[in-house]
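User: Glucose-1-phosphate adenylyltransferase. Structure?
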Amino acid sequence: MPHQRGQRLAARSMAFILAGGRGSRLHELTDTRVKPAVYFGGKARIIDFALSNALNSGIRKMALATQYKAHSLIRHVQRGWNFFRAERNEFLDILPASQRYEESMWYRGTVDAVAQNIDIIDSYEIDYILILAGDHIYKMDYEAMIAQHVESGAEVTVGCLTVDRGEASAFGCMAVDGKDRITSFLEKPKDPPGLPDDPDKTLVSMGIYVFDWKYLRERLIADLEDDGSSHDFGHDMIPDIVKTGKAQAHRFEDSCVRHDPAATAYWRDVGTIDAFWRANIDLTDFTPDLDLWDRNWPIWTHAELVPPAKFIHDEEKRRGSAVSSMIAGGSIVSGTEIRQSLLFTMCHTNSYSSLDGVVALPYVQVARHARLKNCVINRGVEIPEGLVVGEDPEEDAKWFRVTPGGVTLITQRMLDRRGAER
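Assistant: Predicted structure:
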């Protein structure tokens, strides 16, 4: 494909986002929605971070592969990401698993999800393809990673986090040489390799890959015909390229978008209830590590048309107030004391209640005299009058899911069962 002189690498690239995983460790939060569609940060969804990073990096061609319980995700993308214009050569295609080859064949793995859409990717007329996981929280300039890939001449460039060597055994680990060429890929090794410049640190895979499209296309066709493959980038294709070709590591700190040059590179996998709660509550800090206020690198999302949040009543023990908290639009804090909590859109709390360390997803209703501490409340839940959670773990565990970290997950089904059995 001929390109205009000086055209950005991002304009010659597409982002293929893998968003089909259930996220079973989030338990009931993914009963009706896939993990990338889980709410985060007061008004966004997890998927918005990968999509926003691509958009802010200058990439205007994207595809989103979905599979498990995708309706919530598809509806969100249709409502919040509908500004792409085909006449400007911009696309965001949603690619559900659709049994394109055999009636029994859905997406069999991450490689297969891309391979089954070769014809669609061909139509984009791109030079480079960026493979992304759609279920992590971070800010990253992908064009910097694409530029390193082009300069190095690698078959694949792998996005890597730098972690303490003692914590790396839970990840796919990279051994690299002095120029960050990957010399071996080790899946959850007992003794992770140290870095040449820092033996106490290890590079681990972020599940982000850059390929030349022509090269990857050939590999995908070969993988489709390989009955012995598990059709997965991390288990099959990347280790094979490391052995037979050139694989380059890209360090996340080289392209992480920070609010302060001295800040730590921020990346979170919110794949457990504890991690999800902590990452949301951390946003209420005085200066959170994740800057959602940065207008130079915004997190785009679907914003509902709702009025501003409202706080009412100013009496002893009946004061509508929020300290070190984030309250989304449409919420009404009526005579409730709220501390270090995050309330999503259209939450309504009533008099004489208190919330401390609560993450309430959209449309939660809290009745009078409730006391809630260290909770995640699913969308649309109606907290009954006088409910106390977070003070007696044994009692909480009878009705709700209590995590190893002491966070209580509350869903409407749990409350209904409690009401029927009491």
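Residues 310-421 form a domain with the UDP N-Acetylglucosamine Acyltransferase; domain 1 fold (CATH 2.160.10.10). The longest helix spans residues 213-224.
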